[in-house]
Amino acid sequence: MAVEVTTTWLGDMRFESTNPSGHNLFIDAGEESGGKGEGYRPKALMLSGLAGCSGLDVAALIKKMKLEVDTFKIETEANLTDEHPKYYDKVAMHFHFYGNNLNEKKLQRAVDLSIEKYCGVMEMFRQFAELTIETHFHKA
């Protein structure tokens, strides 16, 4: 299945990128790199893609397993190499689940299924980064 994205230069360091969903996004460098900070940074966008991919898996599994979760969030931290081309060599993801009736075993299974089986972006990251995944449960 082919996916097509078109990214168009808008001048300076700013670009607009299409998405198959029909929602476009803007990419821009920070002021320290000649941009105005009016868009997403490309490397940080990769981390959002990683968290979003896994988050969609987990949300679907929460629904399928009929689990009670008030909300959850994924905090992602990455280490950028010093030498060019700079890339993420270490990535840590922290899944935080909030609620009064959390089924910790099933929620952990949902996270595990995402990171081991379903999330294609996770598999891409495995090609170049060391991944650490932690799950945290919080009473609401």
From TrEMBL:
UniProt cross-references to InterPro entries, sorted A to Z: KH_dom-like_a/b, OsmC/Ohr_fam, OsmC/Ohrsf
One Pfam family named in its UniProt record: OsmC
SUPFAM superfamilies, per the entry: OsmC-like (SSF82784)
Highest taxon listed in the record's lineage: Bacteria
Protein name per its UniProtKB record: Putative redox protein
Species of origin: Algibacter pectinivorans
